[in-house]
Amino acid sequence: MEPYPFFQGAPRDGSFRPIVRTARISLLGEPTPVLTAVVFDTVTGKRLTVALPDGFSNDYLIEVLGWSADGKRFYAALRGKDRELDLKEIDAETGSVRTLVTETAKGFLGLNSEMYNGPNVRLINDGREILWYSQRSGWGHLYRYDLQTGKLLNAVTHGDWLVRDILHVDKARGRIIFTASGREAGNPYRRRVYRVNFDGSSLTLLTPEDADHTLAGQATGAFALFFGISNTASKVSPDGASFIDTWSTPTKPPVTVLRRTSDGGVITRLETADISGLTAIGWRPPEHFVVKAADGKTDIYGAIWWPDAAMGDCVPVIDNLYGGPQTTVVPHGFTASGWNDSFAMTKLGFAVVTVDGRGTPLRSQAFQDESFMNFGDTMVDDHAAVMEHLAVLYPRLDKDKVGVTGHSLGGYVSTRAMLRRPDLFKVGVSSAGSHIYEALYGTSGIFQKPDYGDGREIKPRPDASPANYRAMSNAPLAANLRGPLLIGHGELDENALPGTTLQFIDALIKAGRRYDLVYLPNTTHRFGSGGDYFTLRRWDYFTEHLLGVEPPFPPYGPQP
Hints:
Blueprint: E1 3-8, E2 19-24, E3 38-40, E4 47-49, E5 61-67, E6 73-79, E7 84-91, E8 97-104, E9 122-124, E10 129-134, E11 141-146, E12 152-155, E13 162-170, E14 175-181, E15 192-197, E16 204-205, E17 212-213, H1 221-227, E18 242-248, E19 255-260, E20 266-272, H2 276-280, E21 287-292, E22 299-305, E23 315-321, H3 342-346, E24 351-356, H4 365-369, H5 375-393, E25 397-407, H6 409-420, E26 427-431, H7 467-470, E27 485-490, H8 498-510, E28 516-520, H9 533-545
């Protein structure tokens, strides 16, 4: 595996000689390291090789799920080669491997609708059975299997709604406490807490309030990812009799109560959030809306933050997006409505919009699969449709002054919006974008295998580009750029590799297109590691190019 270079131009130790740091990374189409799985007996020191598939690599492994009660077998979820996901039983005494369950799909495959959340799989009944998550019905649900025979015993949940996260397995009572969304009428994203028996009987709603129930600080999705908040602590009592529930809406502050798992009854109220400090500085919640996607029939949900009325009419609008199959960004609870700087930008005079278009999770499998191998175009089409709808719904918006911004995959999609719809998106700020997918590390565990012709998955020459990935690249669209685009780039970005940004910039230069660049030394994928500098530059960029106001200088505090 070839070393991937990272150039550190301003070393933290104060030296003046730049450092080239390297990591062993297999890019798309390159051979991946073949891994050997082994089991060690901690008493005897015996080492046993597991008979995993030929060419086993990181692309295969999803999760080690647990051990049998007698410690002789363990279970793992592995990807197959042709859009398969297998539950494997591994004999710790012989190394033999047995396939118990095989899931197949043409689109995304996983053990949770949100890729950043843990697997919805649990061993039960002393390791004789397993709760297994699948979207085979078109919705994410739980199924119970016999681990000796691999036989399906029963569907634990079913219907046109989605299991979100398993919270607690009550072994003594034979039941599960979990969150789900879409089962009750109204907003399909709001989490509720339910109880159900292992055999699928007695499904009971435990949180009747029409709100988002997060179980007292359970942080998930983008919020947990960007802020590094763990959601592993259980909010269900060890005996399974009670749980701590925090519920809220974007307009109603969080209320925290202690509930019974038997019927959801409130034992006592623990806390009601005080937001007087927020309201004192003029904070306002976002306004939610539902409009049709670009297909003209699918409902998609969004939120808009408004500036003060004193800002007048003809308000410029910024689409603050993420836009991938991993997670959602539209807030459905109170604290989530402040996870990014959308409200802060209203203070500059902008309306700010977030949208969860087709291809994002937490709806049906078909809804999420809309972005499979095509998420950039699907997202851009839906975000463009939303902006056109909002221009009709809210005449206060200036449809001729639309900006777009995003980070990480949002950096990729915001740039793609500028390239595919330059008539609509006039100003863009993109940070840490994964602009060229052929130049990234292997993503075939999530997407399709690369196709270099005749079914070849390994590139025949260094400059070879698989057609099914080339279609996702921003570089071929570089000549379409019309409006101002600010690109943010961290030199030590281990996620959206630095080379992909520079190669996209090279395409812009060859196309004769202007761009602006903020190069951040010593900065990884989390731009917070570079402080607030890029956030301030982003605000300045929109202020200058959308509002037509020159930002103050010196802009960021006293200068030496």
